[in-house]
Each structure stands twice: as C-alpha cells, then as structure tokens.
Specification:
Blueprint: H1 14-27, E1 31-35, H2 38-62, E2 81-85, H3 91-99, H4 105-119, H5 122-125, H6 143-154, H7 158-165, E3 180-185, E4 206-210, H8 218-221, H9 224-235
Parallel strand pairs: 1-2, 2-3, 3-4
C-alpha cells in the first residue's frame, strides 16, 4: 500500500477526527492542544469542528420537512476548545526564513529528516525517494531537500498540498466559532515571530504573545501562563 500511496501524514485529521467524534459522544467535552508543528493540525481541527456544527445546522433546517427524520437539537460540540502553542502559520514560511540566516537551522532539520528516512529504509519502499542512497549528503541543501523529498513521497507538488497538509492559514481566514487560544513567543528560535501573520489574530478567540519562552519552554519560563490558560478554558461554555 505504501508503494502505491504514502500513509496519511501527521497533519491529516483522518484519525484524530474520528477520535474526537467518539470521545465527544462518550465523554462529553473534548479539548485539543497542539505544540509546534502540531499546533497547525490543532488549528485546522478547530475549523473542522466548525464545519461539523454547520453540517448539523443544515440537517436541522432540512429536518423541518414533514417527511424528514428529526435531528437532535444540541449535539455534542466536536471540540470544546483548542490551544495552539508556538506553531507557525505554514511550515514553508519557517524554513524559508531559516534558509536566509547564517545559522541555517533548515539544514539541521533536513539532516534529521534524512536520518529518519534512511534508518527506516523508506528509500527502499517509496519509489519516489530511491535516489536518497545515491546522492552524497543531499540534506546539505536544507529546505530545498525537505521540499523535494516531501513532494516525491506524496507524489504532489508542494503548492498543491500545502493547504491540506502543511498549513493552518486557510483555517483562520474567517472567524472560528470553536474557541481557539493561540500562544506565541517573540524569542522563538524555531518559529520566528516575524513570520506570523498578525492579521489572522482577529479570527481566533484569543492570542497570548510572550517575550520569552523560546520554542519548547512556554510553561517553564512563563509559569503565569498556566493560570491564564486555565482561566480562559474555564470561561468557555
């Protein structure tokens, strides 16, 4: 199956959407928190939850017909709320920014990706990346390498799959009904704050911007953030 088409990547809601649906009916309130790249999926899940509610509202309107089956008045909300911590709008904007710096963190991430692919023998299974074992240090090209490998793995050009897999920008182009808290750090070395589109802030419930916290230490260096998060969560109905 992998040789025909790659498995869903970690930004697909194929599995998590089913989990959220099951959990909301079984346990009631379900919330989702995403860190780093995972926050893009969390934000897109907020848009998915909105779509689920809109679909129910449409069915409720249609059910006014005498021959229709009545729909429940108030279904469980697919997601009670969503929190996105230190994540970008798009993966591409992050690595394109790193490509212009002296430190070239995109090369580090490219090497990490290369190591995973080789150790897992992906290059022997996925036809599009057989060339990985024939080129000397291909990861040295950083973001260009990551983009090329990803396009080969999914058999799609980047611009065709970015919105569906590697971005949450489209999800925030209109106001989200599902409560969404976005936490960002101005000194984040991985996700540069300069690459965040502040015009999108108006379409989410709340945005917290800290001057410290780096990329992985939001709650360690900003302990008051925990209390602010809890207060916001308790305010959601």
């Amino acid at each position: 199956r992998i040789q025909v088409a790659s498995n869903p990547n970690h930004h697909s809601f194929l599995f998590i959407s089913h989990s959220c649906k099951f959990s909301s009916f079984s346990f009631g309130r379900v919330s989702l928190i995403g860190f780093s790249a995972g926050s893009m999926l969390a934000i897109r899940m907020a848009a998915w939850a909105d779509a689920q509610l809109e679909e129910h509202d449409t069915k409720a309107i249609l059910s006014t017909s005498p021959i229709s089956t009545p729909q429940p008045d108030s279904p469980p909300r697919p997601l009670h709320c969503v929190v996105a911590v230190h994540g970008p709008d798009t993966i591409r904007s992050v690595f394109e920014a790193h490509r212009k710096t002296t430190l070239r963190l995109d090369v580090f991430f490219a090497y990490s990706l290369y190591s995973i692919l080789m150790k897992s023998h992906t290059h022997k299974v996925v036809p599009g990346v057989h060339w990985l074992s024939t080129i000397w240090v291909p990861w040295i090209h950083g973001w260009d390498f990551m983009r090329t490998v990803t396009e080969a793995t999914f058999a799609q050009k980047w611009h065709h799959m970015e919105d569906d897999m590697w971005s949450c920008r489209t999800a925030m182009l209109k106001p989200l009904k599902t409560p969404l808290l976005r936490i960002l750090s101005e000194n984040d070395p991985i996700v540069p704050y300069s690459e965040i589109d502040q015009n999108l802030f108006q379409n989410v419930s709340k945005v917290i911007i800290r001057d410290s916290g780096g990329h992985c230490a939001a709650f360690r260096y900003c302990p008051e953030l925990v209390h602010e998060l809890r207060q916001w969560f308790n305010e959601q109905t």
